[in-house]
């Protein structure tokens, strides 16, 4: 496909990403969207500890208010209806922000809550969080404060109900108790605090842990509070005039995506040296990676990182060893049905109660098959297990040609990655690929893009207006098939040209990239969207490492240009 005038803009975008990849080693912090819930948690903890400067409280509140809906509510996903639990948390946080600039937003929110508070069940986590915190500060006029107190009184009454189980146990178990009953029962939380000060590498879990420690009577001067607070502060990123709090670290995921996206259109491996070395440094002894430096090892990120490193080559020598260990991890964690789970289960009976996490996943299996396809020269046993993986994918393909997602929550993602996996193997039976491609082409919108409503649950696909994230995801797959549909790809690229943000350097989208860390709130990362879109723009047939080639061959990152 001939280059267009957009090639110069694409080069500017590439240069920006190369610079970010070099500067963000090993931790690539990027703002997540939406930020309302994470920012609200930080505001509440800052008030609880008395450590948040007024200026930063205003900046956090500014980012929250920017995401308020016209009707006064806040939504978990852009474009969705207002969420009662989230809006309650935000109202509590804004009421302690000590800023007159939020009074109008608070007034609208309280009016919405008064109208909708009986329309849906409040989340147990929200009820317990708000019930453990102090009453809202006297912000605004007396009538507003009276309405706020009435709302939170209704929440506390609801706390007497059975709230069931939650992923935040044992924190919620303590928050269900009175302060007298919970007093002194904080040792298990102190023992599970990580070296970085967080709990579970998640800002939301950390917020709950700190509230629970206070509820259980741990003195506020204890170092656990300071360490947890420092973690929350370290996760903040400036976004225009506001502060955005990241829910978790996703550095490994973004570095791996950067390696692939930047190498797909250029054979200069120096571009990705920093990202590649970061991946080598972050590889665990098991051979896998977590989505971030302190997140648990998962096979989703492991497969993406292994696939990325196959673009890099075998030098330095640690690269070959790291790839081999990752291959062995995937080989020994494949399940009997041929698929791979999200989390590696290497010990019989390990966390059996989390069966929903250890079932074979279409998303993870597609990524694992593709990664192993480009690394099967490292071990002869790969071929047999790849065949099992392919059979699993073919069995899970739906009659309409698509695959249903079970981790990311996006049918377009699952289908695109499955197409890439089968294409990487040069499978002799192209019928499944052709069926999937025909269906994707039928779903292409008139503007050239693709779109999908993501819920985080595998309930099928709801086609919607185009967005850069899904368009880039599909284009990457279409470029990998034996006979790429050039016209459809051309139209999609025209859409991507038109959908750049005002800076001309980012593709942004209201559609979340994936649940992070896979089982919590959905979040969008504009850097990830931009990397995917940039790879989708890589000209067909002109890449140093064509996606359709059976084995990738590239120089090591220290070999230089020869």
Helix count, DSSP H or I runs of 4 or more residues:
24
Q: Could you give the order of strands across the largest sheet?
A: 1-7-6
**Spans of at least 5 consecutive residues with low confidence:** 135-142, 155-166, 347-356, 456-460, 541-562
| Quaternary structure | single chain
Main structural class: mainly alpha
Mean pLDDT over the residues: 82
Number of domains: 2
Estimate what percentage of residues fall within beta strands: under 5%
The CATH architecture classification of the largest domain is Alpha/alpha barrel
Helical fraction equals 40-55%
Give the distance, in angstroms, between the N- and C-terminal Cα atoms: 27 Å
Please tell me how large the radius of gyration is: 24 Å
Strand segment count:
7
Sheet with most strands: 3 strands, antiparallel
User: What overall form do the CA principal axes indicate?
Assistant: globular
- What's the CATH first level of the largest domain? Mainly Alpha
Provide the CATH topology of the largest domain: Glycosyltransferase
């Amino acid at each position: 496909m001939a280059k267009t005038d957009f090639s110069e803009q694409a080069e500017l975008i590439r240069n920006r990403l190369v610079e970010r990849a070099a500067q963000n080693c090993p931790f690539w912090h990027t703002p997540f969207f939406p930020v309302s819930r994470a920012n609200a948690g930080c505001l509440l903890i800052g008030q609880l500890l008395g450590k948040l400067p007024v200026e930063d409280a205003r900046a956090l509140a500014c980012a929250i208010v920017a995401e308020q809906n016209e009707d006064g509510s806040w939504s978990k996903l852009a474009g969705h209806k207002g969420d009662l639990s989230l809006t309650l948390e935000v109202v509590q946080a804004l009421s302690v922000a000590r800023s007159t600039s939020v009074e109008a937003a608070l007034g609208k929110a309280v009016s919405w809550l008064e109208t909708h508070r009986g329309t849906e069940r409040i989340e147990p986590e929200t009820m317990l969080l708000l019930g453990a915190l102090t009453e809202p500060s006297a912000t605004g006029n007396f009538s507003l404060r009276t309405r706020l107190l009435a709302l939170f009184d209704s929440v506390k009454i609801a706390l007497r109900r059975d709230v069931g189980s939650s992923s935040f146990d044992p924190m919620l178990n303590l928050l269900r108790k009175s302060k007298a009953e919970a007093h002194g029962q904080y040792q298990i939380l102190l023992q599970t605090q990580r070296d970085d000060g967080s709990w579970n590498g998640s800002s939301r879990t950390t917020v709950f842990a700190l509230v629970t420690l206070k509820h259980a009577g741990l003195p506020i001067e204890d170092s656990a509070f300071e360490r947890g607070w420092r973690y929350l502060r370290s996760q903040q990123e400036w976004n225009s005039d506001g502060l955005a709090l990241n829910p978790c670290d996703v550095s490994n995921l973004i570095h791996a995506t950067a390696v692939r996206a930047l190498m797909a259109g250029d054979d200069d491996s120096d571009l990705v040296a920093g990202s590649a070395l970061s991946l080598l440094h972050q590889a665990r002894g098991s051979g896998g990676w977590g989505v971030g430096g302190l997140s648990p090892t998962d096979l989703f990120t492991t497969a993406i990182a292994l696939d990325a490193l196959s673009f890099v080559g075998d030098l330095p020598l640690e690269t070959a060893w790291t790839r081999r260990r990752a291959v062995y991890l995937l080989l020994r964690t494949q399940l009997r049905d041929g698929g791979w789970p999200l989390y590696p289960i290497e010990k019989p009976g390990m966390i059996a109660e989390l069966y929903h996490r250890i079932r074979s996943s279409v998303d993870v299996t597609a990524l694992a098959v593709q990664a192993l396809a480009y690394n099967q020269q490292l071990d002869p046993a790969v071929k047999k297990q790849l065949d099992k993986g392919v059979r699993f994918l073919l069995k899970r393909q739906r009659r309409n040609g698509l695959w249903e997602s079970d981790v990311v929550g996006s049918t377009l993602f699952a289908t695109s990655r499955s197409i890439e996996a089968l294409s990487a193997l040069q499978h002799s039976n192209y019928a499944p690929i052709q069926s999937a491609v025909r269906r994707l082409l039928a779903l292409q919108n008139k503007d050239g893009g693709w779109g999908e409503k993501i819920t985080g649950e595998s309930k099928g696909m709801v086609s919607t207006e185009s967005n850069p994230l899904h368009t880039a995801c599909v284009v990457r797959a279409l470029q990998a098939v034996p006979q790429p549909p050039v016209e459809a790809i051309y139209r999609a690229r025209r859409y991507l040209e038109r959908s750049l943000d005002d800076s001309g350097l980012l593709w942004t989208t209201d559609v979340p990239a994936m649940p992070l860390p896979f089982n919590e709130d959905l979040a969008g990362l504009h850097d990830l969207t931009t990397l995917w879109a940039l790879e989708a723009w890589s000209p067909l047939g002109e890449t140093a490492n064509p996606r359709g080639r059976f084995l990738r061959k590239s120089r090591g990152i220290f070999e230089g240009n020869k």
